[in-house]
Amino acid sequence: MIDVDALHMRYDDTEVLSGVAFRARRGEVLVVLGPNGAGKTTTIEILEGFRDRSAGDVTVLGVDPAHADENWRSRIGVVLQSWRDHARWRVRELLDHIAAYHRPYLDTRHRKPWDTDELLRLVGLEDHAGARISTLSGGQRRRLDVAIGVVGRPEVLFMDEPTAGFDPAARRDFHDLVHRLADLEDTTVLLTTHDLDEAAKLADRILILAGGRIVADGTPDELSRAVAGEAEVRWTVDGHRYVHTTTESTKFVHELFKQYGDGVGELEVQRASLEDTYMALVRRHESGDVAAGTMPHIGAAGSALLEEVSR
Questions:
Q1: If we measure between CA atoms, which residue out of 27, 72, 14, 71 comes closest to residue 47?
Q2: What is the distance between the terminal CA atoms of the chain, rounded to a whole angstrom?
């Protein structure tokens, strides 16, 4: 659905993107993380066809976005980082109007735009269908931005920090919508966010951009394992508390129960959070400890687990 290879973007003497490469499959939710200035928005704008690249190969739905036509645009959805047009329109009228532009292209693929009432319910704006857009709160306007992006039932949906300004209830509703699009509509979703908890909940895969390069690519669990390499196991035996750090927590716990059986209590296994992982990778990149474009790997445990428990 998305294929990026050796993507470069330069502004005058500043290289914003340097050799970015990744792919996204149908129905996959891909979350892009990175500090400000890492190149997240630039990458998305190139994929959307809004910005020309300096070099590299990019295809979305098998088409180069730089040369895409209106039929291609009808197959993608875009939720911009900020959009404040159409203040005098009413919510329902605007969604009906935008859906009309999609309909001729969707009919050729035997699909139809979202029913406006259903879409308003999905994004939580059913009580504001007749309201002028200028009267909406920031969070409500962001819900409308999401509705505009998905009204044409896109095959690929791009979203740049879509939940900025959302309250907890709106954020939960948005997560449900993303899962529905990916699982039931088979939509490929690529989004950026600074909310690491949100990324962990939504992502099938996470890309971490730093300095214009991808420094990590994997599931949240894979990234945590690759960076931390170790898990902290806590348990009690005969009223005594123990803590042990290991790179193979499942094997360690198995051996623990083989030795102590039902005597093991209050067992807890804690691995590094996505925030720990993200911060570690960005710091390593900034310090030059990790080669650009590579991801750390987990080292194999080299000690006997039972001996470790005894110690």
A1: 72
A2: 52
pLDDT at 308: 38
According to the model, what pLDDT value does residue 61 have?
96
Map out the domains of the chain with their CATH numbers.
2-218 (3.40.50.300), 229-310 (no CATH)
Q: Dihedral through CA 68, CA 70, CA 71, CA 75, nearest 10?
A: 80
CB of 235 closer than 8 Å to CB of 266: yes
| Residue 279 structure tokens | 């911060």
Q: What is the largest CA-CA distance in the chain?
A: 72
Q: What's the pLDDT score for residue 272?
A: 67
Backbone angles phi, psi at 46, to 5 degrees: -65, -45
Residue 57: CB atoms within 10 A of its CB come to: 12
Q: How many H-runs (helices) and E-runs (strands) does the chain carry?
A: 11, 12
- For the chain, strand residue ranges (E) read 2-11, 14-24, 29-33, 55-60, 76-79, 156-160, 188-192, 205-210, 213-218, 231-237, 240-246, 264-270
* pLDDT range class, residue 170, cuts 50, 70, 90: confident
- Give dist(CA 168, CA 179) in Å, integer: 17
Q: What is the DSSP letter of 63?
A: B
Model confidence at 297, in pLDDT bands (50, 70, 90)?
A: very low
pLDDT digits (tens, 9 = 90+) for 112-127: 888 999 999 988 899 9
Q: Contact 7/20 with Cβ under 8 angstroms? A: yes
Dihedrals φ, ψ of 280, to 5°?
-65, -45
Cα angle 104-105-110, degrees, rounded to a multiple of 5: 95
Q: What pLDDT score does 161 carry? A: 86
